[in-house]
């Protein structure tokens, strides 16, 4: 049984963009070549990184100008949990874990 993890960016207009998280580190920022591009003016070009450590994702602020918050608290580094609200400056995102399909019981 596996699980899929996503970062969901809730845009100011109410639309959502979903970014699947993989095994490699992902760069979050405004740059065109960011793995998770959050195109809002107060987000730094290179704002943060999300990396997998063991079986947990960790969010690391990369010295952003307008800070990174998890559930309202300013963080430099934070292990992510399902449902966490992450703010890159004013950009509102959520960390989601979707559990894999349950295995059928043997008959």
Would you write up a description of this structure?
There is one protein chain. The protein has 107 residues and is mostly beta strands. Helices cover 0% and strands 50% of the residues. The protein is built from no helices and 11 strands. The strands form 2 sheets. The chain has a 6-stranded antiparallel sheet with strand order 2-1-11-10-7-8, with no helix packed on it. A 5-stranded mixed sheet has the order 4-3-5-6-9, with no helix packed on it. β1 and β2 form a beta hairpin. The relative contact order is 0.24.
- State the secondary-structure class: mainly beta
Mean pLDDT: 90
Query: What is the string of SSEs from the N terminus onward?
Result: EEEEEEEEEEE
**Rg of Cα set:** 15 Å
Distance between the termini: 19 Å
Keywords, separated by commas or semicolons:
globular, 6-stranded antiparallel beta sheet, disordered C terminus, 107 residues
Which SSEs are present, and which pair or pack?
Blueprint: E1 3-10, E2 16-21, E3 26-29, E4 36-37, E5 48-53, E6 56-61, E7 68-70, E8 73-74, E9 77-79, E10 85-88, E11 91-99
Parallel strand pairs: 3-4
Antiparallel strand pairs: 1-2, 1-11, 3-5, 5-6, 6-9, 7-8, 7-10, 10-11
